[in-house]
């Protein structure tokens, strides 16, 4: 009896997982299939769940216009620079907070925790004022700098840094290794799983940062992919097929990054779960 109950629960669990996976995958399926539909098919009711007339006109229009290349380049530039910066800054902060205790370190970490609970919308006006005073409006730097100050990144790296053996760093100091050498040669390689997880989070965050980039970037050649897609809506009608095609192209880099760092991401999350 117990065995049959176990099998029933297992089957029900698998069904629930498959249904959940289908629900999560469906928006992606709808986006990709919508990219190959014309306008009449895109707004058809009831909709065509499977495209009956496949067209490449949406991709051709995007390529002929040429703006999509600017948008993808800008998004890639912002996301890569932001990811590298966040990884370095957060790793150094985690190292300093756990392995180089200093006066006020607890206060600094408390400030980071408090900053995590501040809604982002509250910071938009002061951030815009700051960027305007620095002359960075309509500049890609304005899309990068706010990402470098993500409090969660410092919190995450601080938690992972506590698992690095202090004795290993002390042995390096005895051998005459400099502080920079300790960080890059001993500390940095050990926290690679955490770096991989943080890199995926940061890249995705910077790539999908629509609201702030919409506020700061108005020149069509400076727009990122998300802001650029919003310009594909005319005054009276939205070309859904064109938008879906642009969104599909914008999804590819994020997918490649996730696949490339997947093993580090999974390992980082697993270590974080074991630590917690």
From TrEMBL:
Cellular localisation: Cell membrane
Domain of life according to the entry: Bacteria
Predominant subcellular localization, coarse grouping: membrane
Membrane topology type: Multi-pass membrane protein
Listed InterPro entries: MetI-like, MetI-like_sf
Keyword list, A-Z: Cell membrane, Membrane, Transmembrane, Transmembrane helix, Transport
TM region(s), chain numbering: 12-32, 68-95, 107-128, 140-161, 182-207, 240-261
Record domain ABC transmembrane type-1: where: 72-261
Family named by the database record: Belongs to the binding-protein-dependent transport system permease family.
Name listed for the protein in its UniProt record: ABC transporter permease subunit
Species classification: Bacteria, Bacillati, Bacillota, Bacilli, Bacillales
């Amino acid at each position: 009896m117990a065995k049959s109950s176990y099998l029933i629960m297992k089957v029900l669990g698998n069904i629930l997982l498959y249904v959940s996976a289908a629900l999560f995958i469906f928006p992606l399926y709808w986006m990709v299939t919508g990219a190959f539909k014309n306008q009449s098919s895109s707004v058809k009711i009831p909709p065509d769940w499977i495209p009956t007339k496949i067209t490449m006109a949406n991709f051709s229009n995007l390529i002929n216009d040429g703006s999509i290349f600017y948008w993808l380049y800008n998004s890639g530039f912002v996301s890569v620079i932001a990811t590298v910066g966040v990884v370095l800054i957060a790793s150094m902060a985690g190292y300093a907070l756990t392995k180089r205790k200093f006066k006020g370190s607890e206060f600094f970490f408390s400030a980071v925790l408090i900053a995590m609970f501040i809604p982002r919308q509250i910071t938009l006006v002061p951030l815009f004022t700051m960027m305007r005073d620095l002359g960075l409006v309509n500049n890609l730097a304005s899309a990068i700098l706010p990402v470098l100050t993500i409090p969660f990144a410092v919190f995450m790296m601080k938690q992972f840094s506590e698992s690095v053996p202090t004795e290993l760093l002390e042995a390096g100091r005895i051998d005459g290794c400099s502080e920079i050498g300790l960080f890059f040669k001993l500390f940095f390689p050990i926290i690679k799983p955490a770096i991989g997880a943080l890199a995926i989070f940061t890249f995705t965050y910077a790539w999908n940062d629509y609201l702030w980039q919409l506020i700061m970037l108005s020149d069509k050649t400076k727009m990122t992919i998300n802001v650029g897609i919003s310009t594909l809506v005319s005054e009276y009608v939205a070309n859904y097929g064109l938008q879906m095609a642009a969104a599909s192209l914008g999804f590819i880099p994020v997918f490649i990054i996730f696949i490339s760092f997947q093993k580090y991401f999974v390992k980082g999350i697993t270590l974080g779960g074991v630590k917690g």
